[in-house]
Write a structure and sequence with these properties.
There is one protein chain. With about 200 residues, the chain is an all-alpha fold. The chain is elongated, with a radius of gyration of 19 Å. The protein is built from 11 helices and no strands. It has 2 domains: about 45 residues, Arc Repressor Mutant, subunit A (Orthogonal Bundle); about 130 residues, Tetracycline Repressor, domain 2, CATH 1.10.357. α1 packs across α2.
Length: about 200
C-alpha cells in the first residue's frame, strides 16, 4: 500500500481528474468510474484512499476551497492600487472562471456530498462562503484606506457581489461575460461607496 508522498500524488491525480471532468462535462458526468478512467487508475485506488465517493468529493471540494487562500492574499495585497471595481472584476472573473461554478453545482446536485461537508463546514456553500470572506476582507482593507466609504457595509456588499457574480457566470456552457459586464455589475453593487480615484 502506498504511503507518504505516493498517497499525496494519488490524491492530487484524482483531484485533478475530477476538476477536468467538471470543467469539461459538468457535475452530472463526475462519477467514480469516470473519475478513475480520467485519472488512469484502477477503481480500487479510489477506495483505498477514501471511504466512499462522497468522502472523495468532500475532500476535493475542501481542497479547492483552500486553494483560494492565494487568491485572497493577492486581492488583499491589491488594496490601495488600481480601482476597487477593477480589482473586484479581476477577482470575480478569476474565481468564477475556475472550477468554482461547477463545484457549486456539484454541491447542489449531491445530497450525500452536502451532508459530508456539513461535518466540517457547518453553514453555507464552501466555495461561495469562502469567496464572500475573501471579498469582505478586501473591501474592509479598502475602507481602512479611505477608498471605500466608512459607512460601507462590507458584510452585505461581499455576498451581494458573489451572488451577482455567480449569476453572470452560472451558464457553464455559455460564453463567459465580458469584463465590462462584470465591472458594470460591480460598480452598480458598490453604488457610491467607492471613493477611489479613477485612472
Amino acid at each position: 500500500m502506498p504511503t507518504g508522498v505516493a498517497i499525496r500524488d494519488v490524491r492530487e491525480q484524482l483531484f485533478s481528474a475530477a476538476e477536468r471532468i467538471l470543467l469539461r462535462d459538468g457535475p452530472n458526468a463526475l462519477t467514480s468510474r469516470a473519475l478513475t478512467t480520467e485519472a488512469g487508475c484502477a477503481k480500487g485506488v479510489l477506495h483505498r484512499h477514501f471511504a466512499d465517493f462522497d468522502a472523495f468529493l468532500a475532500e476535493f471540494v475542501l481542497d479547492r476551497v483552500h486553494r483560494m487562500d492565494s487568491q485572497a492574499a493577492a486581492l488583499r495585497d491589491a488594496a490601495g492600487t488600481g480601482t476597487i471595481a477593477g480589482n473586484l472584476t479581476e477577482a470575480l472573473t478569476s474565481l468564477f472562471g475556475s472550477v468554482a461554478v461547477a463545484v457549486v453545482a456539484l454541491i447542489t446536485f449531491r445530497d450525500g456530498l452536502r451532508d459530508r461537508l456539513r461535518q466540517t463546514w457547518p453553514a453555507g456553500v464552501p466555495v461561495l462562503t469562502e469567496a464572500a470572506t475573501m471579498i469582505a476582507g478586501y473591501l474592509a482593507a479598502e475602507r481602512g484606506l479611505g477608498r471605500l466609504a466608512p459607512e460601507a457595509d462590507v458584510e452585505t456588499l461581499a455576498p451581494t457581489l458573489i451572488g451577482a457574480g455567480h449569476l453572470l457566470f452560472a451558464d457553464r456552457k455559455g460564453t463567459p461575460p465580458e469584463p465590462g459586464a462584470v465591472e458594470k455589475m460591480v460598480t452598480t453593487v458598490l453604488g457610491g461607496a467607492a471613493r477611489d480615484a479613477r485612472p
